[in-house]
Structure prediction request, 201 residues.
Amino acid sequence: MFTDDISLAHNEDEEIKDKTYEREVITSAGCTGMDFQSVTFDGCRFIECDLSKASFYECKFLHCDLSNCKLPDSYWKDCEMEGCKCKGIDLTNSTFKQTTFKDNSFVYGLFSECTFEGSRLSSCDLSNALFSQVALRRTTIFSECRLTRAELFKTSLKGIDLSDCDISGIALSDTFYELRGAEVSYDQAAELAALLGVKIK
Prediction:
């Protein structure tokens, strides 16, 4: 079980490697600063877990529930997250490299000061998420994501294609500089123009 492996890893100061956990309910697990290598979580539910400063390498989260879990200052490389429920998850100041997110719900998620590098988010719900001061580097891609009412203060979207995303009600700075260089559809441009007080006939 995961809790047993965590205790062993703590006692021996080792990482958790080459493990698969299926349909486990993990409650109040203290995994601060833990390293995970080639670990798969399939159908697991995390309740009030603290994974602050944890590192994940080649890990997979499949159809898991990480709602309200704490993962600030975490590091992710070559990971996959698919079909997960992550409402209110705290990923503040985390780094994601070559990591893919597909069909996940991050409603009210906290992503402030995160760095995405060469990563992809597709069909994810980021409604009401706090996405401020985020760095999007090296062809990070957004595809069919919902960013409804997401806060994007000081997050440069230059070079990011948002044309198939729902960006209605996004919160930006007064200068709207976040959108400079972003790619949007005609309908989105009309909606964004309304934010500027421009009327399109």
The radius of gyration is 18 Å. The first strand starts at residue 16 and ends at 17.
